Amino acid sequence: MNKLNADTARRIGLSVAAPVLAVALSVVITSIVLASAGNDPVETFTQMIEYAQEPRTTTLIINAAVTYYFAALAVAFGFRMNLFNIGVDGQYRLAALLAAAVGGAVELPKVLHVGLILLVAVIVGGLWAAVAGLLKVYRGISEVITTIMLNSITTALIAYLLTADKLAVQVEGSNNIGTPEIPASGRVGGIDLVPDSKLQVYGLIVLAAIVGFLYWFVIERSRFGFDLRATGRNEEAAVASGVNVKRMVLISMAISGGIAGLVGMPQLLGASYTYSLDFPAGIGFTGIAIALLGRNTAIGVAIGALLFGFLDTSSQILDLEGVPKEIVLITQGVIVLSVVIAYELVRRYRIVAQQREVGRQLSSAAGSEDSKPQGAQA
Amino acid sequence: MKPESESAGVPAVELKGITKRFPGVVANRDVNLRVMPGTVHAVVGENGAGKSTLMKTLYGMHKPDEGTITLNGEQVVLHNPSDAIARGVGMVHQHFMLADNLTVLENIVLGAEPKRWGGFGLNRAAARTRIREIGKQYGLEVDPDVLVENLGVGDRQRVEIIKVLYRGARVLVLDEPTAVLVPQEVDALFEALQVLKAQGLSIIFISHKLDEVRSVADDITVIRRGTTVATADPKTVSSRQLAELMVGSELPSPQTSESTVTDRPVLEMKHVELVKDGRHLLRDVTLTIHAGEVLGLAGVEGNGQAELVESIMGMRTVDGGTITLAAENITTWTTRRRREAGIGYIPEDRHRHGLILDAPLWENRVLGHQTRHPNTSGPLVNRAGARADTERIVGEYDVRTPSIDVLASSLSGGNQQKLIVGREMSGNPKLLIAAHPTRGVDVGAQAAIWDLLRNARAEGLAVLLISADLDELIGLSDSLTVILRGELVAQVDPSTVTPEQLGSAMTGAGEAA
Amino acid sequence: MRRVTKLVAVAAAATFSLAACGGGSDSDTVDSGDSPTSDIKVGLAYDVGGRGDQSFNDSAAAGLDKAKDEFGVEIKELEASNGETDAAREERLRLLADGGFNPVIGVGFAYATSMGKVAEEFPDTQFAIIDDETLAETPNVTSLVFAEEQGSYLVGAIAAEASKTGNVGYVGGVNTPLLQKFEAGFKQGAEAVNKDIEVQVKYLSQPPDFSGFAAPDKGETTAQGMIDAGADVIYAAAGGSGGGVFKAIKAAGADHWAIGVDSDQYLTAEADVKDIILTSMLKRVDTAVYDFVKSSVDGEVLTGVQRFDLSDEGVAYSLSNEAAIEPFTAKADELKEQIIGGEIKVSDKP
After folding, report:
1. Which residue does chain C place closest to A326, by CA atoms?
2. Is A12 on the interface with B (CB under 8 A)?
3. Which of A78, A305, C17, C233 could bond to C168 as cystine, CB 3.0-4.6 Å?
4. Is residue C334 part of a domain?
5. C155 near C259, Cβ under 8 Å?
6. Are C142 and C179 members of one domain?
């Protein structure tokens, strides 16, 4: 038995080793790129890290991570059952627009107002994602295709809705256009999480923590989560076990979209109070990268979100120091690719190692010829 | 027919004592094979008997754990297919490995020794000449400049063969070459094989179509359960005898003792129809299984057995008829509801339908029983309960594993199957569907699983047994039904029928006993 | 295995999309020549695209370069990322202000909210924002805005005069209120000359997709469609996509004209298409930036809303394609005087 415990220890070690190696590899590659462009890699990274330690920057990193966290959880939820929701981007933008429109149109007591905005966002995101779910279930169209297309449709839809005669108001003298500002009762104040920082962390970080916990609980502890993971790992076996896969696809897409609906909320309720032309776009794609990096677990994704938050935010300082800040895009890309490869290698190694271990234990117990240690060469 | 080399010469291929293990299973055990030059040597055996594993060994795709490979009298170690090719062994896979968007010539030279043909743009002409030569020499003519996507199946196979000959193969391994061909193409292929043989090449012909084998082969080796059990002379052996050799008769007996059949019907199917794209997958299927009865379903694979099982399980919606379980009409129920009502299911392909290979054993115990005690309580998974019950199954059903936390993929096939049987027997099932319950498991586990099925029957379960192993089917069943092209065509009495009679009934040839 | 392949594909897609977010970056080079020096440090934050976008970022850069050469000011340029938040823009402005840069210029209306906040934090720093005047009340923010509709009005009139088919086109880069000002002016100008004229209007992309400013292929097909529908003069208010419009016009042959935007594209466009560029609607972001920096150097910094229009040549039409534009200048100049004189009011709403 302690052999197996050793195996467990090794397994945990390997799980940690994979992302660490991936990050290290990307640092090396980034350094090479930096050096070949004539920048000092050590100095560059030092600058980024020092800059990140300033209280103000730390706050910004956390705020970016909160937003990324929702996006990555939305993607990860689908990934857990092999659903590729590439449409988080469209889902959160449409959700944010409609939630902003509703939030800016009403005046309610604080809790109700915020609750209403969040509810609208979740429902819009969920329904929009469910469109892809429906098409998959009833028409057999890959959700990868439909969600990508829905992203474009979202853009067109928002362009149509975000005009002065529909959901938006035109502020005199501005070349921007956005929804009416959400009144104070619908805003979520910040938290002084980082000492000495003038900036505040988004109040919705609490919601992110709650959603993260629920994500873990539902996936790992509930019957629904079991069905979801079973479907993700072996759909045919799940069908044979009585899982209604069509229903699961619909529900999972909707939940994934619902979480996606929250992506824009920290920004909307904590900073901009309006959905305008310059509302951040593209976070859904960052979410895909982070979900891959974090292996679709609540904790892993949180760490990935912080890492991406750090890279994105700290890159600002690079421009000031004369280093092209696009360098962090290389870092991020390499991290994601190497993490996928590293995890797969580790997964295979684990399986082979465990099979060997099982074979060894059984043969020493039974001495049977058929279960001698296997020289698996896979 | 046979050239002189038969008696005199050194064998082109000689495999001695080949054993190949995969984690948890022994795919080949003590395999011996002698192929003489200038002959067609058939290797026959059931699906999963180990033919493909053996050929992969010969083709250098993996190394045997024990045993030797001798080619033309020289003992060799093959590290990879390039080694095999260099020593004149070529393989034509069942599924063609051709690039549709390239021409025949390009496909043939693709991946050929770069030293000789490096920068093949320069050698295109040479390659074309060579291909034409091969075509003439062996009667395998194909236009080198036509796109592969424009070729029919027979021509594609010819390209595959030329590709192998182009690399200088003297031993050709053909894996189920006729599976994809229409009869005329089969004839053409056999003619080509005769030419190749006459030129002194050796052909290893893998098949389970016994009539073909008898007509084309010079020698036959039979593989059963991973080992070579017999050689036969195609001139004297009958297809029935071959079939018997393939299925085997000296296995541990699956006989059941006295009948436990009651008159209480558990499963009743009435006039069940299943239609897909205008084709009947099941036609007017009517059957009844009583408590304590094992109903054996005999048939050549692909005659509707899988569809029948999936209809009972609710994985397919039937297009007509009713299915009743313990007097309740379950025709429109979901799979989950049917399982909850007491159907246990040992699927034909346990890796695809029975297990989540990269999940630990205890999670696999929950699979199919997600809504039931002790696995879940309310909407939550009861980890402690599920784990405890997995320990129980591991103990009661003798699943050999160091822990219930290992991944299902780490267990041998037999132990995986025992886990499934144990799981499906949990929760007081009324009906157990056992599809090929002993396929791919070792002999020990086979006996254990037979015991478990007998016990289930004794406890009053209704069992639907599907198997390609006719001894198993005859030995365990209380009654036998033959399925052919989606119809139940015959009822036979297992106490009197022989495997030969059953075999004939399965192909629609013989009389029902 | 299949699962892995799929994963890798998605990872690659994710990486790609990340990479796609980054624009080209020819970052700042702070070499000081031997020319005059000044202790003024100018910070400039670009909109997405940055220096090298062949559009208004470049125009701002040109103004900055000119100021640097003339006054020897130290400059620092920072670029924006696609899809960034206000927090990121805020941080960029703050970095500049914190680093002692004064004045700090934000290129593009997207900086409005963030500049409002940062300007409050650094009351001693003078800020300037281009294309926005919502911060008119903030004392240390100068709004540099343009009467694009006026310049567009003139080129609209020229287009209508030059058109033989009575059918002209407007290709906008991205459908934003700013670009709608161009559209509005162009339409009014064209209709002022020929009230029956048909004006085709197309935008290449919808926000937040700002690719319409950098999609010459889309510009070309869109212009081609307009030509097929009868247009013979097309106004390309589409940044880098204008090149595609020029190609389509060139391909359509004689008697087809294109009108450029922002800078004098007759001088900057590729040699093989320049002859079909009738004129360009000049929006002198460079002048605005230069003037603003100059005022800082002079110690009498421009404040409040600085509107650049026809009267001060902040917007204008270009004359560099002399032979082509010559027949239309009389009418255009007449209209120009009327606009300056207030006899013609150009609306900025389409």
Report:
1. C22
2. no
3. C233
4. yes
5. yes
6. no
Mean predicted confidence (pLDDT) in B53-57:
86
Number of domains comprising chain A:
1
Q: B409-432, pLDDT tens digit by residue? A: 888 778 889 899 999 998 889 999
- Put simply, the answer to whether B380 touches A351 (Cβ < 8 Å) is no
Q: Are residues C212 and C67 in the same domain?
A: no
pLDDT beyond 70 at C8: no
Provide the percentage of residues in chain B whose pLDDT is more than 70: 89
Per-residue pLDDT, B134? 86
A16/chain B closest Cα distance in angstroms = 19
Q: Dihedral sign, CA of A134, A135, A139, A142?
A: negative
Q: Over 70: is that where the pLDDT of A155 sits?
A: yes
Measure CB to CB from residue C86 to each of A272, A322, A344 and give the nearest one. Answer: A272
Residue B7 has pLDDT above 80, yes or no: no
Query: How many other C-beta atoms lie within 10 A of the C-beta of residue C322?
Result: 9
Q: Are residues C255 and C206 in the same domain?
A: yes
| Tokens at C63, concatenated | 């103004």
Q: How confident is the model over C29-39, as pLDDT tens digits?
A: 444 445 567 78
Domain that holds residue A162: 63-322
Q: Per the structure block, which two tokens stand in for A281?
A: 């776009």
Strands (E), A138-268: none
Query: Do B and C make contact, counting contact as 3+ CB pairs within 8 angstroms?
Result: no
Q: Tell me the ipTM for this assembly.
A: 0.83
Judged by CB atoms closer than 8 Å, whether chains meet at C177 and A176 is answered as yes
- The tokens for C89 are 């823009």
Q: Cα–Cα distance between A244 and A247 in angstroms, integer? A: 5
Nearest Cα of chain A lies from the Cα of B376 at a distance, in angstroms, of 7
Touching chains, C (3+ CB pairs < 8 A): A
Chain B partners within 8 Å of A243 (Cβ): 335-336, 370
Q: What is the pLDDT of residues B269-305, one digit of tens each?
A: 999 999 988 888 999 999 999 999 999 998 877 788 9
Query: Alpha helices, DSSP H only, in C83-147?
Result: 86-98, 112-121
Nearest C-alpha in A relative to B335: A242
Phi, psi torsion values for A33, nearest 5 degrees:
-60, -45
Tell me if B92 is assigned to some domain: yes
Identify the domain containing residue B130 by its residue range: 5-247
Please, do chains A and B touch (3+ CB pairs < 8 Å)? yes
